[in-house]
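ugh ok so i messed up the first submission bc i forgot one of the chains. this is the corrected input, ALL of the components this time, i swear. 259 residues overall. if the numbers dont match what u have on ur side tell me asap before i send this to the collaborators (the ones from the other lab, u know who)
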Amino acid sequence: MDKTVRFRIRVKDDTADVKVMIFHPMETGYRRDKNSREIIPKHFIQTVNIAHNGKQIMQVHWSRSVSKNPYLNFRVPNVSKGDEFKIVWNDNMGKSGVGTATIS
Amino acid sequence: MRLTKERRVFLHSALVLIGSLMVPTKVLSRWDDNAYNKVDITESFFSIGITNPGNLIEANDVIELSLPEIAENGAIVPITVHSKVMNTERIFVFAEKNPQPLVSDYIITDGVEPFAASRIKMSETAFVHVIVLANGTFYRASRQVKVTIGGCGEE
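and heres the new structure output, hopefully the right one now
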């Protein structure tokens, strides 16, 4: 497990409001380094897979136009205590990250 | 009678198998390089299957879209979409004047609400279009966001 994914989950009427923050630079490839003036290569998350108790419930595709340290909020109905959410992200440089959270 | 029952059981398990094979292909759609690299909004729409933007169903009343009227910092523009379109399968977000207009897309299953919120970058004042795909039909909600400082290029 890495520390790139942070969760905040609130349950109301059996529906989970899940807020996720992923630590990632989300570089557009248009910015220049302040000192070297070199173009900073594009580096951004392309897919985020979201599973609820092992079942895929949502897939997200992102572009370079998603803000740095992306924030994602989604809602999952029919949840119970002990349910697990798993987030897996993959970026254009072949890097990935995983995060899990359990409803307490 | 026994044969019929076995046949029924077989058909049922066959259908379950086909169903389980189909679900992952729908959910695990590939990141579409072509669509995400289009630079023109019409071509960008076309790349996701909107062959004629004139056929888009304007749905500002059934797609709840929350965006700031004025974004002082184009690097962080909060957006919330809640689709009330029945059987929403997919939610696409476009920023019309960004270098590549397609910003994101969300593949929705019955395991989540047709709802998504995030933060996007906008290079300049432009319309944000949210396209919802449901039952093979594209629905649109649009809103203009005035951007004071663009958020795509220079630091």
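quick check: The domain at 5-102 of chain A is CATH 2.60.40.10 (Immunoglobulin-like). that seems consistent at least. Chain A has no helices and seven strands.
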